[in-house]
Amino acid sequence: MSKIPLIQTSFHSVYKRQGVKDTTYVIRYRLDGKSIDKAVGKLSDGMTAAKAYDVLTKHRHFDKRSYETIKNPSLSQLSTKYFQLMKDLTDKEDGFKLEDRKAKTIANIKREESIYRNMWQSWIFSTQPLVKIKEEYLVKHLTELKVKHGYSHKSITNALALGKSILKHTKFTECNPFIFEDMENKDRFKKKINARQRYLSPAELKELLLKAEMEVSPQSLLLMKVAVFTGARPDSILNIQVKDINFRTQKIKIWDFKRKMYYFAPLSEQMAEDFKKHIRKNYQYLFYTRRTKGQTKINQFPREIGKLMNKMFNEHVYESNEKVVPYTLRHTFANILIQVKKLPVLEVSHLLNHASIETTIKNYLSLDTNNIDSDFSELLV
Questions:
Q1: Cα–chain-centroid distance for residue 210?
Q2: Nearest to residue 62, comparing CAs of 36, 30, 25?
Q3: Which residues of the chain have pLDDT under 50?
Q4: What is the pLDDT of residue 377?
Q5: How much of the chain is in helix, strand and coil states, percent to nearest 5?
Q6: What is the DSSP string of 193-218?
Q7: Complete DSSP assignment for 15-29
Q8: Whole-angstrom Cα distance, residue 206 to residue 376?
Q9: CB 376 within 8 A of CB 200
């Protein structure tokens, strides 16, 4: 009978053996110059790859040099250390209220792991000592990601930011290949500073919602309406729970991920009616996955929303900051309140939960008041 092979997990020196009935986790370490494999637990008993790695790091025979070459670590080795560190910090805050958390959320860690897998894991130099990586190697890799594989400028800058974060949190100071010395390369990959300026006029907004009624699901339509009529950031909207909606006071409690705080958005009578039709008994999240019966939120705006926006507004738009995207609805909310309804900028700044009125003035005063539909704008606060 052939032996079931070991499968490498995302954690260094942690493997899994997938049987018919269960999965066994195995750690690999060196003892007296020999490689030793040791089973540490089964999935059915609650063992995970992360827990197996924790056992590995605490194992009395664990040779740390097999995990990290102290003098010349590679990006692969440091990334393993980094993600374990982030998960440990998150675990320490288990049970904390959202507003009291300082560490990254599990969702953020998974997003960074995805960036690492897509952008760095397959790079031939990810397993080489960082001190040996030349700037030209990095530039070539990033250029291939952009030109050959079609990654956006934003994806490239996110990958660079992750690389810097890995080195910062693992306290590696020997070198930093993610900070370019050559000015031409720095200009080539530096983050664009052009702020997103696109917004929808009331007429465009009305047309979008009318089309959405016919072309997207009821949940996607409601998601768009909440974005339009609260001005909340997309990730904050996805995080709304049923308990955050107070029909008596007509307020929605919203968590601002950017400022790490709660604030309240007004709830109109029409939105309240839409919510009551949408909410199901015992469901936790307002925007949910049916597979988990409302106990899990959706992680991003559904693709059908982006496809509709692209079809209506983006076919001949090539500058990313001019494209209509879900975040455009936040700009639309602000501009209609300021330019059409003539609300004071300070009040709109408060509704957007901006830290200062200067942010509102700088980024949200741009609406062309032609083609105003005043009746439609009354739907807003």
A1: 29
A2: 30
A3: 1, 60-70, 367-379, 381
A4: 45
A5: 50, 10, 40
A6: -PPP-----HHHHHHHHHHHHHHS-H
A7: EEEE-SS-EEEEEEE
A8: 7
A9: no
Q: In what order do the strands lie in the sheet with 245-246?
A: 245-246, 251-256, 261-266
- What's the rounded Cα separation, in Å, for the pair 14 and 328? 44
Crossing angle of helices 153-169 and 135-147, rounded to 10°: 140
Q: Which of 230, 194, 200 is nearest to 212 (CA)?
A: 200
Q: CA–CA separation, 138 vs 119, rounded Å?
A: 11
* Cβ-contact 173, 343 below 8 angstroms: no
**CA distances to 87, 126, 146, 345 from 155, in Å:** 23, 18, 9, 33
**How much is the pLDDT for 379?**
47
pLDDT of the residue at 1: 43
Structure tokens at 101: 């958390």
- Burial (Cβ within 10 Å: 0-12, 13-18, ≥19) of residue 240: buried
